Amino acid sequence: MKRRTLLKSLALLPALPLAGNSLAAPLAPPSVTALDTPHSRWRPLLSDEAYAVLFEEDTERPGSSPLNQEKRPGTYLCAACYLPLFDSQHKYESGTGWPSFTQPIAGHMATKRDFKLFIPRTEYHCARCGGHQGHVFNDGPPPRGERWCNNGLALHFVPRGEALPELRS
């Protein structure tokens, strides 16, 4: 059984109350509304794997992204619309197997509650195209204490000094 099918099936079960979970409160409210564009518009621009992560909320295998090892200064963009999401100065090695950041670029993420694994989590998306990026947790390093755990397939890295590509619409 595919992981996605299993998770969808489990989501149909009644959710258990999880009082006292410190991850229950979203860390940041949505600041920008995603454009009203059909997700199918992005399919020809992305690999099947990237499309599945961004617009079907799939998750890549931990440790599979070359961006885990990326250490150069630069900017991480949404792989679909090219909105800048993270600056490399906020990237750190979390040990999770996914690129992790201490904070996004202000106003470029939208968040929502996710109960897919029964434990409430805060899922975040590109505020422009709505592409699923990952989840934010409150176990990151000081001073913010946030870990923005991102799918590498959902990102496009541009080294500092190179021109950022134009936003795709």
TrEMBL record:
Its EC number is 1.8.4.12. GO terms for biological process: protein repair; response to oxidative stress. GO terms for molecular function: peptide-methionine (R)-S-oxide reductase activity. The keyword Signal applies. One of its GO terms (cellular component) is cytoplasm. Residues 39-160 form the MsrB domain. The keyword Zinc applies. Keywords: Oxidoreductase, Signal, Zinc. InterPro entries: Met_Sox_Rdtase_MsrB, Met_Sox_Rdtase_MsrB_dom, Mss4-like_sf. This is peptide-methionine (R)-S-oxide reductase. It comes from Pseudomonas xionganensis. The gene is msrB.
